[in-house]
């Protein structure tokens, strides 16, 4: 086990926020490259800081092979895959970025993602097609690299990608992006170019020099010869979304079937840039004095809606509500029309009680959208812990459960 504290602080100066977060939560190192375990990944998307002291454990080739041998095939996947694997897995930096993309995409986007990988259009994705992902995200990061010591930046690339990257561009573009794009947008734009550039050829080069990972073995088998169909791809993405939501829900439910409305508010606001969160929490406390609770199905349906936030925004503009507040019935209908998700009356009422700060039973559409966009960027805006107020009733619930 190596501490790497001085190197960590030094190279952090040259890393982007996403790279910094990956390096903080990663706990494994193999031949100079850093990896997350499945447990590390779950911690990175559900906590503000790692719970463990910062150490990178060096894996031997034998240890890595043993981990990969125990990786289940994709048809054995479940919504407990990451929890079952726990520390028995390795996730690279580019796979970490890919998994983050999955967490915020609607189910309709799963087909788009699959088609982007399926560059030859045969309704199957092979290992080579998937490895194009490595090059796309690497090229995006190259554009964002901070200027400075070339030796330090080379060390950082080695940690994140496992090999020294050339300075010349591999992916041909029509010029630099004028506006920063998300990794999902980058993936969507760049995979369409894969057949018309040397990007796919580059994937061949790196596949021979990089080690396999848990995700590659899970998708393409221990020999890397299997192919991934859409049904298995869809199931993996849906299971990952469900697993992260289950973990967040269970961290507040204390073994019960519901979480309190106040805990639901905490979860919604925890990754946002809202400065005065206490006003939202106090407002909800006063307006929902009797705790009914939010079930997991309600909780999950709300986050499925959030993953369709762009379509909802368009629907609201079409309804001509963009410049004025809306009521609960209009909100429910707009959600269903835009996303196909039916939110329960109690869930909608809870959302209104959280965000209706002026208490006029109307929701400011623009303010709500802005806050929820922050929530979707979990972990990449400044995390601000929210003080947890506990109602008398929730205290009683937790005390009864502890007995």
Automatic annotation (TrEMBL):
Transmembrane segments: none
SMART domains membership: EFh
GO BP terms: calcium import into the mitochondrion; mitochondrial calcium ion homeostasis
Subcellular location: Mitochondrion inner membrane; Mitochondrion intermembrane space
Location of the EF-hand domain: 105-140, 343-378
InterPro entries: EF-hand-dom_pair, EF_Hand_1_Ca_BS, EF_hand_dom, MICU1/2/3
CC annotations in GO: mitochondrial intermembrane space; uniplex complex
Entry keyword set: Calcium, Disulfide bond, Membrane, Metal-binding, Mitochondrion, Mitochondrion inner membrane, Repeat, Transit peptide
GO molecular function, one term: calcium ion binding
Stored PROSITE patterns: EF_HAND_1 (PS00018), EF_HAND_2 (PS50222)
Protein known as: MICU3 protein
Gene designation per UniProt: Micu3
């Amino acid at each position: 086990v190596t501490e790497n504290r001085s190197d960590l602080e030094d190279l952090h100066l040259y890393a982007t926020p996403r790279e910094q977060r990956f390096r903080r939560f990663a706990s494994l190192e193999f031949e100079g490259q850093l990896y997350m375990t499945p447990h590390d990944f779950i911690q990175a998307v559900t906590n503000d800081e790692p719970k463990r002291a910062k150490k990178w454990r060096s894996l031997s080739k034998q240890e890595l092979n043993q981990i990969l041998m125990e990786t289940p095939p994709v048809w054995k996947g479940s919504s407990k895959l990451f929890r079952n694997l726990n520390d028995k897995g390795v996730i690279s930096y580019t796979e970490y970025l890919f998994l983050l993309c999955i967490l915020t995409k609607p189910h309709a986007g799963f087909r788009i993602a699959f088609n982007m990988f399926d560059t030859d259009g045969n309704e199957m994705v092979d290992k080579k097609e998937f490895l194009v992902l490595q090059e796309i995200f690497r090229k995006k990061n190259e554009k964002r690299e901070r200027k400075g010591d070339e030796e330090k930046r080379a060390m950082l690339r080695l940690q994140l990608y496992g090999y020294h990257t050339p300075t010349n561009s591999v992916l041909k573009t029509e010029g630099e992006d004028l506006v920063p794009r998300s990794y999902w947008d980058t993936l969507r734009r760049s995979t369409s170019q894969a057949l018309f550039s040397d990007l796919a050829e580059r994937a061949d080069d790196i596949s021979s020099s990089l080690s396999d990972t848990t995700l590659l073995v899970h998708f393409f088998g221990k020999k890397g010869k299997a192919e991934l169909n859409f049904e298995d791809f869809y199931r993996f993405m849906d299971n990952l979304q469900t697993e992260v939501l289950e973990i967040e829900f269970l961290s507040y439910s204390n073994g019960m079937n519901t979480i309190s409305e106040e805990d639901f508010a905490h979860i919604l606001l925890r990754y946002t840039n809202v400065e005065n969160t206490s006003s939202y929490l106090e407002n909800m406390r006063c307006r929902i004095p009797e705790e009914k609770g939010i079930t997991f199905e309600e909780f999950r349906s709300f986050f499925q809606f959030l993953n369709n936030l762009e379509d909802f925004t368009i629907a609201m503009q079409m309804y001509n509500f963009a410049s004025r507040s809306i009521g609960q019935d209009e909100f429910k209908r707009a959600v269903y029309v835009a996303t196909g998700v039916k939110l329960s009356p109690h869930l909608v009422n809870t959302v209104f009680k959280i965000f209706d700060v002026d208490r006029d039973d109307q929701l400011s559409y623009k303010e709500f959208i802005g806050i929820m966009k922050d929530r979707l960027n979990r972990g990449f805006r400044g995390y601000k812990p929210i003080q947890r107020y506990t109602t008398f009733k929730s205290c009683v619930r937790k005390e009864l459960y502890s007995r």
